[in-house]
Design a protein that fits this description.
Helix content: 40-55%
Strand order of the largest sheet: 2-1-3-4-5-6
Structural class: alpha/beta
Radius of gyration: 18 Å
GO molecular function, one term: DNA binding
Distance between the termini: 46 Å
CATH architecture of the largest domain: 3-Layer(aba) Sandwich
Modified residues (4-aspartylphosphate): 54
Number of helices: 10
CATH class of the largest domain: Alpha Beta
Organism: Phytohabitans rumicis
Pfam family, one: GerE
Keywords: DNA-binding, Phosphoprotein, Transcription, Transcription regulation
CATH superfamily of the largest domain: Response regulator
Length: 218
Amino acid sequence: MIRVLVADDHHLVRTGFRVILEAEDDVEVVGEASDGAQAVDLAARTRPDVVLMDVEMPVFDGLEATRRIVAADAGPAVLILTTFDRDDYLFAALQAGASGFLLKNGTPEALIDAIRVLARGDALLAPEITRRVIATFTRPGATTPSDGTRLSVLTPREHEVLVLLAGGATNAEIAAALFLGEATVKTHVSRVLAKLGLRDRTQAVVFAYEHGVVTPRG
């Protein structure tokens, strides 16, 4: 059973999410929070697998709540849900440690799929959001060339995997590109994240572009 905490300052929105989620046999809503402080408190007390997090909430916003929640030991994955299609929210959410970002105008099916992806320990960005991440970090002067210190812990194969991750490749696509089995790719991805101190694939994408691992295309 996937345990989900819903954090949104609008009661009707929380109720709508609960109705959608509780229609699924493998999802349980373990709590509702109406502000950032409640979200942090309930996350600590209910220990959900996934938190659905609104951005604009009272007391402190969803971005600060996300930072506090993911900083906890074995903290849950956070899926940012917002009506605001703005790059500043997107990148702030990723930097705060969110594992996924969806707009509220998506379908119930997309929401359920996203929750299941995060509950498996993967990360999720909608394709259009991945493109925006890549576009932002490939603007002239946007990347910071790495001194190689952190990257030096990677093997050549792990470096190849990181490059493909930065392009948004799935495990199956990485396996095909490198002529490896998907189980082997999954192991490589886990090692890349562990060695670089990254939470998930989303952070790996941001890290790769911030550190100039991938050369921007003209």
